[in-house]
Structures are given as C-alpha cells and as structure tokens.
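User: These chains co-purify. Model them together.
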Amino acid sequence: MSTTTEKITFNKEELERYSRHIIIPEFNIEGQRKLKKARVLVVGTGGLGAPLLLYLTAAGVGTIGIVDFDIVEKSNLQRQVLFTTSDVGRPKVEAARDRLSALNPFVNFEVFNTRLDSTNALDIISSFDIVADGTDNFPTRYLVNDACVFAGKINVFASIYRFEGQASVFNYLYPDGSRGPNYRDLFPAPPPAGLVPSCAEGGVLGVLPGILGSLQANEVIKVISGIGTPLAGRLLQFDAAEFQSKIYKISKDPENPISGINPTQTELIDYEIFCGINQHQLPHELELKQEISVDQLNDWIKSGKIFSSSMCVNLTNTKSLILEALLFQKGKY
Amino acid sequence: MITIFIPTPLRRFTSDKSSVIVAARNVTEAIRQLITSHPSLSPYIYDESELIRKHVRIYLGEEDIREKQGTDTLLKDGDELSIIPAIAGGSGLVN
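Assistant: Joint model of the two components:
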C-alpha cells in the first residue's frame, strides 16, 4: 500500500462528516487521507459483510469493492442489516450499493455480481489493497486466503457459526517486508465434507456477525491507518453463549502448502461445495432412497455419521422414512 | 486436573458443557479421556489415522501444541487445553 497521501484532499462537507475521526490526535487528517486513498475489497455481503460495509463506508474508505452473487432473501434480514424488506429479491450487490451510496456519497463502489472462484479471484483481488473476508463457507474461505497470499494482499478475516466467532488478520505485511501467518498456517486444510453440518444445521445468532464484522472493520481501519497493533499472528475466539473471548497465537507452519518451505500448491483450488448432506457424506450402509428405520437414523445421528436436523427430529414420530438425500443436498431442510 | 475447553460447535457432544475436566499427563491422554467420556466427539477431532484433524487445533493456554511437543506435550495440574475448530457458516451459502 502506498503511503503517499499528499494529493488526497477533502471538501468542506467531507471534513464535517469525518470530523470525529480527524479530532482524534492519533488518527487526524492523515489517517483520514489514508482511508480515502485505500481500496478495500469486501467478499460477501452477508452477516459479516453488512457491518463491515456499513462501517467502512461511513468511515470514508475511498474505494470499496463488493463481491456477491446472491439475491436478498427474507431469511437474510435477521442479521444482514444492510438490507431492508423491500430489497428482497434484488441482487445483493445492487441493494448494497444503493444503501451504502445513500450513507456516504463520497465513497466509490466497484461491484462484482459474481461468485468468486479460481478463475476470477486473482483478477478481482489484485486491484485492491486489502481484502476483508466475510464469506460463509469453507471453499471460498480457502480461495480468498490463497488468492491473498498469491497476490500479496492482507486478508482481514472473521468467521462465525451459531454462537462462535473467530477473527484474525492474515498475511499481514510487516514493515520489514515479511508476511504474517495465513489461514492455512492455522488450519492447513478444510474439514472433510462429512464433518460439515448441513446449511440448515448451520444457523447463527443474528447479532454475532454484527459483533465480528464490526471487529473486522476495526482491523481494516487499523491496518490502513497504521494505528495500534493489528490482530496478526493471533486468533480471537469469541463465545457469545458464555461471553468468553480468548486470544491464541498463530505461528507460521513450515509445512504450509502455499507459503511453507516447500509449497505443494501453486494455484487456486475450487474445493467441492460441501454444504448439506450429499451422496458422499452418507454412511456407506445407506443407498439413496433406501428405507431405514427411525432407530437406525437415530443411531447414525448419535454416532455422528450424519447430522441431525429439524427435519430428522420431526420424522422421529414416523415408523420409518425414506431419506431423500437430494432434499438435504439443496440445504433447504 | 486438566481443563479442556469445548468450543460451542462441539458442545452438542458434551451435553452442552463448555469445559470438561480430565486427569492426564500429556495432551494425547487428555484428548483420549475426553473422547472416552464423550465418544461422539471422536470423528470431529481425530481422522481415520488417529491424528488430530487438519481443521482442528489444540492449544495449551494460548500456545498451539504444535509449537511445543505436539500431542506428546506434557501437562501439569491446572493446565488448560482448548479445542479450536475451523468454522464457517450461518447463511444458506452456495447451492
């Protein structure tokens, strides 16, 4: 990131808008200039992306990229505070741009109404200074991480699941030019498909992404402005149920497949999308549409072979059931 | 005694307990004791080769056991272990 900010100027309206930043001695006009000069890419406009985008826009980041392929659904509104009821059915990137432009007309938005994958990730990420990962699935998490490492971008990370939150700053650029650990130093590979709960099993307390996404926005602003100590080489774990937060150290792993001593992976990978139960995840004993007893299903759920869901619970009243794996695969139950 | 902190995604296997107390001399013994008392945790921590899964980290205090002696790391009374799994999710994601 270039630190030359002399040419960055503000008009009277902007100075008034950002006055509460500018009067912080450590931040001052120089911090605000750095924000205006910065280009930040936010991947995902969901629960994490909503507070991220709102705060980065309000703060006056100069250019914000927004990537999402989805449309706004009613079930998003419980946590995706960027959207209103009237946005349901609209492409998320469009609804987001409208909402954010209304919040701050001095911010430039670049929207990508597409799914980030191995063919476009490097192109999209390369033109930005910092990436903030607000995605909700493992394949995109690893894709964003790997692309940031390959493209030399800082990846401000947060992740949530039900009552659990995690945050870190990956691939941080230190003044000596070295890089901090990345996601694969912490978790070298994604979980196998069979251990990922189905979409319906996922779920999240609505306010949790608000908390973690706000922490993410804070780290983005810190990285841009150079204030404080970034959450690099450290993992924040937040347990919203018990209200406990802990910080764990993350070290570089010499065996990291993309940035270790002998990297084995030099290109981006599109991991199989493994939301929901698909054929590969079902116990070997179960063929599609095979009839099983409720007791058998319960055994499988208890032993962790398959994941229980609200659908399974409801069906325990019946004598037997035909498990339509494809229903689960779509993640609708 | 050793306290093992259970992350929220795995508490359904520990009757919602946020921590489990075990008596163990090293990390392997501690995790095995945890699994003995809560067998359904096993596939979420160990892979088919009985190794800690790649999306799960075990911490002693705030240090990754990988930075110590791995699962052979010795434990002393009052030590705290944490299980940290990779998490992702919340919305309907890709379909």
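Chain A touches chain B through 59 residues (CB under 8 Å).
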